[in-house]
Amino acid sequence: MPSKITLGPITRAQNSCSVEVTIANGKVIDARCSGIFFRGFELILRDRDPRDASYLSQRICGICSAAHGTAASFALEDAAGIRPPRNGNLLRNLILGADFLQDHLRHFYLYGLPDYVQGPALGPFVPGYTKGFRLSKKNNELLMQHYMQALEVSRLAHELVTLLGGKAPYNHGLLAGGSTVPPAPDILADFQSKLHKVRDFIKNVMIADINTLAEAYPDYYHIGTRTPNFLEYGLFPHDQYDRDRHFPAGVVIEGRMQKLETSLITEHLHNSWYAGNDQPQHPTQGKTEPDREKPGAYSWIKAPRYAGKVMEGGPLGRLWIRGDYRSGVSVMDRNMARVLETEIIADLMEGWLTELEPGAPVFNSFDVPREAEGVGLTGAMRGPLGHWLRIEKGRITHYQIITPTAWNFSPRDASGQLGPVEEALIGTPIEDEKGPVEIGRVVRSFDVCSACATH
Length: 455
Prior knowledge:
The structure is a single chain. The protein is of the alpha+beta class. The protein contains 12 helices and 15 strands. 37% of the residues lie in helices and 17% in strands. Strands 1-2-3 form a 3-stranded antiparallel sheet. A 3-stranded antiparallel sheet has the order 6-9-10, with helices on one face.
């Protein structure tokens, strides 16, 4: 007889998502991913001054807030027809890059590593899984030492955000028009010193650790697999004109590269607790009208699709599109790509720091348009992030956000297509139904952000 298991919290950080799987003959045969907490940021932003969006939308998530500040800034700049000065673009890249570093470090070590490494008989490691650990005693102890070191290193990365953004999370350095404060020489020297320490840990510890995990768990290159369908909006503008980005935009469908066409993005509501059913909408027309009693629905997360297809976002998709990593699509591939991306971003930040021009402007002032529409698209820690904005009489009248985890952790759509995490769970072998560590490994390979998903 098939049995069902419900797991939550999934992320080890929040409790607004859950996963229900059906198991038969030692394998997952069905899965449902649910967002179980409604937050309503799209409603909160209505009737606000458009300049508020970059600050308020950051409150969607405490660990990837700079990404929302970036997308909101891009959306207002698009509506107002302005761009930041060169220094402003560099500072925004540095702030967002630092937030990427702390996020990837925290996920790999604090949220993901306990699935593979046995910790001491102390919280937060107990209660926890007791089976499925394969590392030698020596390697287990070494990775636990690095887990503890990562607490300090990820804090240093958050200090990088604070140095240029004023505070972390929810920094004040990112806004439409550029950045807020020109950094003083002592601030930049401090930033460079801390960045050097973070880069050293990434290159000499984190890279070795993911290779140690990959050697101990080679079967996870064949678990959590799905068709290579990826979506990316592009990450880190090369210059103030945003003509191209260090991580380019693109689409991969069944392993084949295609040009991104944002008009092909829609959101399905069939299995989501929102009014509306079988007519998917582009985010410029989408609505957020809660309906908790909707028959058949099982999630507060909408189901975004690209050309009707289920798309995955994240470091693996970004590196696939960039051409840096195309080994496969699995649990270990996602983990490997996340670590490799961390190193790439740290190296880029070293270059951006040297490009800053002392005394050059960091902000271009502008008038908020009375009537306008704009879209802000950026790569974020977990994949493509989009903010769609409409302004009437100088106020926000329409705001729609599609987060990376909405793509990855979406429910089924109107045609019954499973979301990416749901797809990846199918076929996962389960050794012990009372301690299904394998389910967590698959889900956490996507670095699910339940706060963003239930925005």
